Task: structure prediction
Amino acid sequence: MKNKDLLNRSLQAVWHPCTQMKQHEHLPLVPMQSGDGVWLKDADGKRYLDAVSSWWVNIFGHNNPCIKDAIKQQLDTLEHVMLAGFTHEPVVELSEILAELTGLGHAFYASDGASATEIALKMSFHYWRNTDKPEKKQFISLQNSYHGETLGALGVTDVAIFKDTYAALLTQSAQMPSPDFRFSENGESAEDFALRCAQSLEDYVAEHHHELAAFIIEPLVQCAAGMGMYSPVYLKRAREICNQYDVHLIADEIAVGFGRAGTMFACEQAGIRPDFICLSKGITGGYLPLSTVLMTDDVYAAFYDDSTTKAFLHSHSYTGNPLACSAALATLAIFEVDDVVNKNKQTAATINDKMKVLTDLPIKHLRSQGMMFAFDVKTESAAFANTFYQQSLEHGLLVRPIGNTIYFMPPYVINEAEIDFLVQTTKLSIEASL
Ligand SMILES: Cc1ncc(COP(=O)(O)O)c(C=O)c1O
Result:
């Protein structure tokens, strides 16, 4: 099957996500047929370097032998069993390891990031009901935050293009000033700016804490907002403020977790432990859909009761799927065996170094956090993002800009020659798009 046949059939049968389908009249879909390492290959045999890890999930490359073998082995044993009333070894082992890594006691499972957000929000709300504070039912998040696109998650998301159409369906929440250091004043350090934003958070929480259930935040990087990065000091202050005023802190580490922000979990860089952590994306190395929420023992204990209505009556059919859990166990084993978090420091240093050539171009805010790299292109052209995207694809590179922000979130296995290709092709594609 060649590219053209497959893309025509796809347009007839598939409604693609996050897409105005009419745009495919002039922007062709790319039918992918196989993958290996950082590379994807289309149906005509052309290769593309996957610089966004297939929507930030594929941390150890395509066709990864360890993860593939683990799934195959599990496939011969138990493909699925419902998790209500039943359990199995992969889910138990995974929960034990995640508890050790996060310092949080129990893991509640789902399949996608947005479902993890829903679970954390519902659980926080329900916690306050169970502990006789039912008036604590409001949520706060950051300006420009992104927590997923189901209705509850969209309620705490602050990206107009995803949210405004559905405003009438959404639960209201309040947005706190974002500590993204691109918004700082001239001469103000990232830390000072973060502390100034934390002061606004404190002012709001001090006034509204009696009605607040939780503050949900993307630790260190607001990814969908265009890789807005901020100082860990904000997280530290947020933890203190939430402690002081008895408000839950939900860390949405769906995008930044599993080494992406430079440590296993981003909260580690602020030395804090959230009340809830939401995990997904890299958890299975990009092989199977899996998400989880871990919470403190205090939260767990508030649901442990003779009363059924005090229980968390929430479920998804594929919760804790054994195949997905076995992929996650293999992913976590790679972290351990290959000392991934430390190795990534070297890879990140190489990428940062090679990206210096991009400063010859009209760009600003060249920034990085762990294995996330971004900069903003100074251009007035409204068509820039589309033109750049098409140019880079033409040259065998998959990068999806967010407005004028170009970012790389490559699989951790990217090598030096591939980094050269990534940077040089980006440079070339920007030059052709200005
Ligand atoms: C921080 C954050 N939270 C939640 C989500 C939603 O995850 P999913 O797309 O798997 O529903 C995303 C997705 O990009 C994300 O970046």
User: Anything to note?
Assistant: The longest strand covers residues 363-369. The longest helix spans residues 190-208. Residues 112-114, 117, 146-148, 218, 223-224, 252, 254-255, 280 surround pyridoxal-5'-phosphate (CB under 6 Å). The two ends are 36 Å apart (CA to CA).
